[in-house]
Design a protein that fits this description.
Length: 286
C-alpha cells in the first residue's frame, strides 16, 4: 500500500508540488545534495560547524539526512515520495559524519538542537522537520525551551519525531505544546511498537507511516528506513503543501487543520493518524 493512501495525501500532492514561498528547514545529518533528484531544487545551506553537504556518502549521518531530505525535496519522478519539491529548503546539519553506529534515529544535545532551531528561524523557515532525538531525554534545557518558544512566537511550525525507544514519556521537545510530535504506523495505520508514546504526544501529535519507507540513498541506490524519523517528513510535507495552497492562512489555522484539533482534549497517549485530505477540506470550507 502506498503510504500516501494511509494519510489521504494524494489529493494534496495532485494539487501542488509546493510553493517556493514556503520554506522547509531540514535539521538532520549532512545531505548528498548532488544527487540528480535534487538538481534544480531551491536549497539553502546554513550552519556553523557541520557542513550541510556530505563529504562521506557512506556515513550514517549522510545516509539519514539524505533519506529524510529525499522524502521532502526529491523530484516526483524519483524513488522518494517527493512530498513538496516545489518548496524552498534550508539544510541545517547537526550530526557529524563520524557519528558511529546505525541507529535509525540520530541523537543531538539540547544545546546543539536549540542552536539549529534558532538558525532555521533566522533563515526564514516556515516549518522545521526534526527527525532526531535528544541524548538526554529528561533534560529540560532552558536554551531549547527558549528556541521552541521563539518558533511559536515567529509562527514557525516544528514537526518532531517522537522517538523509537518504545517507552511512555516525553522529551524536552515532544513535551513542548507548540511541537507536533510524530509516531510511526504501518501501512494499515497500526502503531509500530517502537514508537514512543506519552500524554503530550497523544495530545498534540500525529501518527504517519514509518515502516520501510523508500527514499534517496546516499549510495546512489534507493534506500529504505523505518521509525519515527521516516514518519515525521510526511507530516512536514503535508503542512508545506497545505500552506502552499492557502498561503495567507494564519499559522494557527494550519496547525489546527493538520492535527485535527477540534477543541476537545485528547486523553489517549496514542495520537490520531494524519489525514491530509481532511485537513485540506477544513481549510477549504472555513
Amino acid at each position: 500500500m502506498n503510504p500516501a493512501d494511509v494519510m489521504g495525501l494524494r489529493r494534496l500532492m495532485a494539487r501542488t508540488e509546493g510553493s517556493r514561498d514556503i520554506t522547509v528547514s531540514v535539521i538532520d545529518g549532512p545531505i548528498w545534495l548532488d544527487h540528480p533528484a535534487f538538481s534544480g531544487q531551491r536549497v539553502r545551506q546554513i550552519g556553523r560547524n557541520i557542513p550541510a553537504a556530505c563529504h562521506f556518502r557512506g556515513s550514517p549521518a549522510c545516509r539519514h539526512g539524505t533519506l529524510v531530505m529525499g522524502m521532502l525535496a526529491a523530484k516526483r519522478n524519483s524513488d522518494a515520495p517527493g512530498l513538496c519539491p516545489g518548496c524552498t529548503f534550508i539544510v541545517r546539519a547537526i550530526f557529524p559524519e563520524n557519528t558511529p553506529g546505525e541507529d535509525p534515529m540520530p541523537v543531538s544535545t539540547p544545546t546543539d538542537l536549540a542552536a539549529a532551531i534558532s538558525d532555521s528561524i533566522s533563515a526564514g523557515a516556515n516549518v522545521i522537520n526534526l527527525s532526531a532525538a535528544l541524548t538526554q531525554l529528561s533534560s529540560q534545557s532552558d536554551q531549547l525551551e527558549q528556541a521552541l518558544d521563539n518558533a511559536a512566537h515567529h509562527g514557525v511550525l516544528v514537526v518532531a519525531a517522537a522517538g523509537n525507544h518504545g517507552t511512555v514519556g516525553s522529551s524536552a521537545v515532544t513535551s513542548h505544546p507548540w511541537v507536533i510530535p510524530v509516531v510511526a504506523c504501518d501501512p494499515h495505520g497500526r502503531l509500530t511498537p517502537e514508537s514512543n508514546l506519552g500524554a503530550s504526544i497523544g495530545r498534540h501529535g500525529l501518527a504517519a507511516p514509518g515502516e520501510n519507507i523508500t527514499s534517496i540513498g546516499s549510495d546512489g541506490k534507493p534506500g529504505t528506513f523505518s521509525g519515527t524519523s521516516a514518519a515525521a517528513p510526511f507530516v512536514t510535507g503535508a503542512i508545506a503543501l497545505l500552506w502552499s495552497e492557502f498561503p495567507k492562512a494564519a499559522v494557527g489555522r494550519i496547525k489546527l487543520a493538520v492535527t485535527g484539533a477540534d477543541g476537545r482534549p485528547r486523553k489517549s497517549i496514542v495520537p490520531p493518524t494524519l489525514n491530509a485530505g481532511a485537513a485540506y477540506s477544513r481549510m477549504a470550507n472555513n
